[in-house]
């Protein structure tokens, strides 16, 4: 039985919230450090267009790494599968999301997958448009279409804060430029990427995007095909193998749904053929995943038999 009650979700939130104290909000992007550690929200979106939610659902949060799934979808639509995977690989790393280590040791020198920062930067590089501004507008329009929410935009303060402090990501871009993975202006790509990561929404919008992926690219409200089936399939596969970084294996065993996390504390879940899930809880574990969010997903997976394995 799937959950169709806000009260039931509220109960799960109150149990999961207790774990928030064991983590910390992200510090390396200064504007994220002011987030409230004990906030937690969840929404479920079903293929019949119905949604359920609980917790601090009105709070907007930035997508951060969750945006990597959506930029990948757009790059696949723009460039095709063959072209995209000439610049980025398909394998999990077992390393932290911002690691540079395997970029140097892997030959040829291309990022191992699109979910780590290096891979996501290479993917954002492939989004089509005449200018960086036009590429960002195309990504924003694409995300507005997936959420069904025309008001989606980005948080200027958080984008600026990351742009000013993203020394490690700049290093990744310079390294990839040296090796021919990227051939555009570094600052332009950094501007586009940091805006992409700062795109904001609430957990209901996020659950709806998860539902589109869960339904193989189909809009839950209109039945329109928003993404090619293969693009949705590739995105969900990366969510399983790399979506929670070096915690992806443990998460697959304990939860068992395609999911993607971000350092703002967001997690998007796509339960194949069943529902989309949007969560935000800014307190993170040592691997950069929402600590209460993961607990909540563990509880939900057990209670509603969500694991696909
Ligand atoms: O590039 C970064 O470091 C951030 N904008 C996104 C990283 C992130 O969300 C990692 N996820 N847990």
UniProtKB/TrEMBL annotation:
It comes from Shouchella clausii (Alkalihalobacillus clausii). Belongs to the glutaminase family. Its EC number is 3.5.1.2. This is Glutaminase. It holds the Pfam family Glutaminase. Substrate binds at residues 65, 117, 162, 169, 193, 245, 263. One of its GO terms (biological process) is L-glutamine catabolic process. Homotetramer. It is an enzyme of class 3 (hydrolase). NCBIfam families: Gln_ase (TIGR03814). Keywords: Acetylation, Hydrolase. GO terms for molecular function: glutaminase activity. InterPro entries: Beta-lactam/transpept-like, Glutaminase. PANTHER family: GLUTAMINASE (PTHR12544). It catalyses: L-glutamine + H2O = L-glutamate + NH4(+).
């Amino acid at each position: 039985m799937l959950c169709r009650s806000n009260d039931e979700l509220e109960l799960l939130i109150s149990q999961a919230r207790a774990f928030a104290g064991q983590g910390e909000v992200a510090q390396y992007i200064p504007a994220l450090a002011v987030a409230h550690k004990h906030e937690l929200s969840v929404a479920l979106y079903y293929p019949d267009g119905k949604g359920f939610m609980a917790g601090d659902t009105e709070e907007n949060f930035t997508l951060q790494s969750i945006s990597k799934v959506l930029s990948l979808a757009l790059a696949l639509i723009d460039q095709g599968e063959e072209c995209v995977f000439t610049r980025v690989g398909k394998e999990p790393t077992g390393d932290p999301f911002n690691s540079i280590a395997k970029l140097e040791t892997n030959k040829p020198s291309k990022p191992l997958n699109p979910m780590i920062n290096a891979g996501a930067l290479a993917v954002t590089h492939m989004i089509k448009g005449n200018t960086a501004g036009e590429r960002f507008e195309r990504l924003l329009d694409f995300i507005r279409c997936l959420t069904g929410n025309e008001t989606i935009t980005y948080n200027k303060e958080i984008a600026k804060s990351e742009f000013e402090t993203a020394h490690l990501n700049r290093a990744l871009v310079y390294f990839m430029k040296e090796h021919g993975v990227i051939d555009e202006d570094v600052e332009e790509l950094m501007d586009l990427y940091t805006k992409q990561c700062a795109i904001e929404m609430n957990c209901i919008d996020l659950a709806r995007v998860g539902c589109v992926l869960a339904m193989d690219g189909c809009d839950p409200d209109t039945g329109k095909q928003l993404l090619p089936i293969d693009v949705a399939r590739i995105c969900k596969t990366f969510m399983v193998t790399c979506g929670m970084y070096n915690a992806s294996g443990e998460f697959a065993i304990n939860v068992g749904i395609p999911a993607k996390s971000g350092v703002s504390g967001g997690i998007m879940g796509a339960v194949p053929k069943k529902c989309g899930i949007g969560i935000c809880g800014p307190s993170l574990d040592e691997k950069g995943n929402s600590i209460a969010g993961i607990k909540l997903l563990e509880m939900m997976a057990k209670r509603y038999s969500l694991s696909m394995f």
